[in-house]
Amino acid sequence: MKKVKKEVADKYFKTRVTMIAIFLFIGFLVSFGVVFFAEQINESGVYIMGMPAHYYMGAQGAVVTFIVLLFLNAVINDRVDKKFGIDESRNEQISKTGTDH
Amino acid sequence: MDQQALVSLTLIILTFALYIGISIYHRAKATSDFYVASRGVPAFWNGMAIGGDWMSAASFIGMAGTVMLLGYDGLAYIMGWTGGYLLLTFLLAPQLRKYGRFTVPEFIGDRFDSNFARLIGAIATIIISFTYLIGQLSGSGVVIGRLLSIPSWVGVLIGVAIIAVYATLGGMKGVTWTQVAQYLILITAYVIPIVFMSLQITGNPLPWLTYGNVVEELGAIDRELGLSEYFAPFDEGSRAQFLALLFTLMIGTAALPHVIVRFYTVATMKAARWSGAWALFFIGILYLSAPVYAAFSRFVIMNDVVGQPLDDLPAWTEPWLNTGLLEVTASGEQGVLMWEDLIIHADIVVMATPEIANLGTFVIGMIAAGAMAAALSTAGGLLITVSSSFAHDIYYRLVNPNATDSTRLRAGRIAIFAATIVAGLLALDPPGVITQIVAWAFAIAGGTFFPVLFLGVWWTRINAKGAIAGMLGGLTTTLTYIFLAMNGFILFGIGDTGAGVFGVTVNFILVIVVSLMTEQPSQRLKDEAINLRYPEQMSYEEGQVWLDDTSGK
After folding, report:
1. Which of 66-95 (A) contact B at CB < 8 A?
2. Distances from the Cα of B543 to the Cαs of A81, B152, B523, B532, in angstroms?
3. Among residues B535, B46, B92, B545, which one has the least CA distance to residue A78?
4. For residue B343, what are the β-bridge partners?
5. What CA–CA distance (Å, rounded) separates B256 from B249?
6. Nearest 5°: phi and psi at B332?
C-alpha cells in the first residue's frame, strides 16, 4: 500500500466527473433538446437520411449517439486509469477477495 | 394442428431444450453463483445478457406497433428505454459494483446502515419486479396461445414450467447464459423479416439506411388523405407529456433492480462500464429496428389495405381480422376502406410482418420462438431479483443472519420456485390493469430508487433518515399522481405515464432536506461513499487515498 497524494486523487475524481458531465450533456441535447424544439425543426424542413430531422433524431440519431458515448466513456476511462497507474488485473484480484456477504 | 403450428412448436421446443441444457451445464453450486454468477461474467457477454434481460415480450411484440400508431410521439419509448443506460452506466453501475453486494436493497441497507431502509428497498423491489413478472408471463401465454392456436392459459403454464426448472436450477449463473442464448434468438428473429421487407420495398438489404424515404412518403400519403403527417410532433399529446414520459422512462430504466443486479455479475468497475456500452449496443439493434417495422408496415397498410374495396383486402389480413387484432369499423365511404375505419392493435405489426412479406412458415416460427425468448429471458432475471429480495435481503440479512451457505442456497431455490408458481397463478387471470401497472413500474422504480441510489453513490452527507423519507415520499407521490391522473386531475398536461417527474422531484427534495436537517452520518459511512470515487486499486481510508501497488500477477 502506498499513499496517493490528495491532488492526484482529487484530479482522478475531477477528470471522471468532467467526462460524465460532458457525456450526459451531449446525451441530454440529442434527446430532450431535440424534442423541445421538435416543432421548429419540423417546420424548418431539415432532413437527415431522407426523413425530417426531428424524426430521425428520435428514431435513430439519439440512440446511436448514446451508444457512441458509452463506448467513448469506456475507452477514455481505461486511458485515464492507465495514466494514473491503475492495473486492471490487480483490480480483479482485489475485487475477488473483497467482502462478499 | 396445421403445418405452421407444427413448425412454430418445434422451434419453441428446440429453444426450450437449449435453455434447460444451458442451466444444467451452469448449475449454481454456491450462493455467490446463485445471486451474482460468481462475479465472473465477461463484459461482452454480460452486455448481451443485459440485452436479453431488458427486452421483454412487450419490447419484442408491442413497441414497433406503438411507434406505428403514435408516429413521432411513440419515439419517446425508443429514446427513453435506451437513454436510461447512459444514466445507469455513468452514474450508478460502476460504483454499485465496487460497493460489492448481492442486491439493490442490500446496497441501500448497508450504505445507510439501516435495516428499515433495507426492508423498504426489499418490499419495493418485490412489488416492482413482481408486477413486471406477471406481465411477462401473461404476455408469453398470449404469444404461445395466438401462434399455436391453443388457449393462452396453457401457454402460461408451459412458460412457467420452463422458467421454474431453469431458474431454480441455475440461479443467476444459469440465467446469465440462457439470457445470452435468448438474446441471440430474439434478435435474429426480429431482424430477418425487416431485412427481407427492405429488399422488397427499397431493394436494399440494410433497412436502417433506407427507411427514411419511406417515412417521408408516409408523410406525403397522410397529407393527401388529409391526416396529420406521420412524423408530425406531439400529434397524440403535448410536448410536456412527451418530455415527462421520456424522463420517467430514462430514470426508471436506470433504477430497475433486475437490470442493476446484472452489473453485479462482472468483476470490476471497468467491466461494469464496458457491460453498459455493450448492453446498449445489443439493445440498440432492436430499438433501431422497431421504427423500421413501424414505417414498413404502415406503408404496406396505406398502400395495400387503405383505399381498397372492402371485399378485396389482401389475403394476410384475414386471420388478423378473425382474431380481432385488426378491425374494420365502418362500411367504408364509396365502398373503399378509409384509414379512419381501421382499428389496428399494436401487437399485430411484428407478428404480421413475415406474412405481409411472404416469408413462409419457418420465419413465422422464428418470430414465435423469439417472442418466447424475450418473455422468458426477462422473466428469468425478474425471478432472480424477487427471490433474492426474499431469501437474501429479508431472510438472511434480517431474519436469520447465521444461516449457512447451503441453507441460503436452498432458501434462494425455494423462493424462486414459489415466486414462479405464484406469479404463474396470477398470470392465469391477470388483474385488468396489469399492462398499465407494467407501464407504471418505470415511474415507481424511478420515483422510489433513483434519487436514493444516485445520492447514495455521489453525496456523503446523505443519511438513513433522508433515504427513508425520500423512498417513502417518492413512492407515495408517484402512486398518488398516477391515481389522480387516472381520475382526470392533470398537472402541466402530464398524464399518468409521466408520473415519474413528480415522484423523482419529491424524492430528491426529501432526501436532501431531511438529511441536512438531521444528524451527520458516521465517518465510516462517509468514507465508504468517498471510496466509490476511485477504482478498486485505490481505496479511501482514514482521510487518505491509498494505492494497492502489489503486482497484479
Report:
1. 66-67, 69-71, 73-74, 77-78, 81, 85-95
2. 22, 61, 10, 14
3. B535
4. B327
5. 10
6. 90, 130
The span from the CA of B292 to the CA of B274, in Å, is 28
Cell of B464: 438513513
Residue A75, CB-side half-sphere exposure with 13 Å CA sphere: 6
Contact A4 B546 (CB under 8 A): yes
Q: Which residues of B33-53 are buried (b: 16+ CB within 10 A; e: fewer)?
A: bbbbbbbbbebbbbbbbbbbb
Closest CA relative to residue B380, chosen from B125, B172, B188 = B172
Superfamily of domain B3-431: Sodium/glucose cotransporter (1.20.1730.10)
> Measured between CB atoms, which of B232, B239, B536 is closest to A94?
B536
Give the tens place of pLDDT for each residue, B507-542. 999 999 998 888 888 888 888 888 888 887 777 777
pLDDT tens column, B330-354: 655 566 777 777 777 777 788 778 8
DSSP assignment of B176-233:
HHHHHHHHHHHHHHHHHHHHHHHHHHTS-S-HHHHHHHHHHHHHHHHHHHTPPPTT-T
Q: Domain segments of chain A: what residues?
A: 6-84
Give the Cα separation of B72 and B233 in Å (integer). 6
Contact between B75 and A58 (Cβ < 8 Å): yes
Other Cβ atoms closer than 10 A to B551:
8
**Looking at CA atoms only, how far is residue A44 from chain B in angstroms?**
13
- Indicate the pTM of the whole model: 0.87
Report CA B94 to chain centroid distance, whole Å: 20
Helices and strands per DSSP (H, E), number in chain B: 22, 4
Q: Which residues of A touch B280 (CB under 8 A)?
A: 66-67, 70
**B:231-250 residues touching chain A, CB 8 A cutoff:** 231-234, 239, 242-243, 246-247, 250
Beta carbons of A89 and B535 less than 8 angstroms apart: no
The segments of chain B whose pLDDT lies below 70 read 1, 38, 142-144, 146-150, 152, 236, 323, 330-335, 430-437, 551-553
B336 strand-pairing partners: B309
Look-up of cell digits 406525403: B220
Q: Which three cell numbers stand for residue A93?
A: 484480484
